Amino acid sequence: MALCTYDEASRTWYGVQRVSIYNPMANVGEVLNHILLRTPDRTIQIDMDTGSRLSCAEFRMRMVRFAQHLTDVGLRKGDIVAMANGNSENVAPLACALMTLGAPFNPLAPGFNVEDMAHMLRLTQPKMVFCDDDNVEVVRQAVSSVFEGEIPIYVFESQRGDVKHAEDLLIPTGKEEQ
């Protein structure tokens, strides 16, 4: 990409053309995407528990991959997602991906018991749930008491073989820059 271009007709030099972040028609995800593109090397997130740092470029890549994989599994604008998990390094990129897709999310306390979890799921009727390894059984029981069919439950930071792993939604798609 050229750093600048010259328009002979108007006899004007132009720098790199970037989309304005002040676009009133842009959703929050689009604005975040453009901001992250402008400062790829800056640290945007530090995980207090692990000390892990994410640059804007890494954060954006996770956000894009979450958005692409969630779209591939059928999540659409307006679909509600429940997030019953504690904070970890992939929660913020997931939340930003959901905002990009226009999918509202309902953050739930990971310490809810089955009755409280079921009550909140009944109220919001999410299309899928994200949770942690230590509350997946509570979430499963709540989901089975509220929904007749199954809805996807993705588990963060789990070694279990009987769950869908949220980290699988971060596998490269090959179309992250499209």
From TrEMBL:
A Gene Ontology BP annotation from the UniProt entry: fatty-acyl-CoA biosynthetic process
Subcellular location field: Peroxisome
Superkingdom, natural source: Eukaryota
Transmembrane segments: none
Listed InterPro entries: AMP-dep_synth/lig_dom (IPR000873), ANL_N_sf (IPR042099)
Broad class of the protein's primary localization: other
Residue ranges constituting the AMP-dependent synthetase/ligase domain according to the UniProt record: 38-148
Any GO CC annotation of this UniProt entry: peroxisome
GO molecular function: long-chain fatty acid-CoA ligase activity
Keyword Transmembrane helix belongs to the record: no
Protein name: AMP-dependent synthetase/ligase domain-containing protein
Species lineage: Eukaryota, Metazoa, Ecdysozoa, Arthropoda, Hexapoda
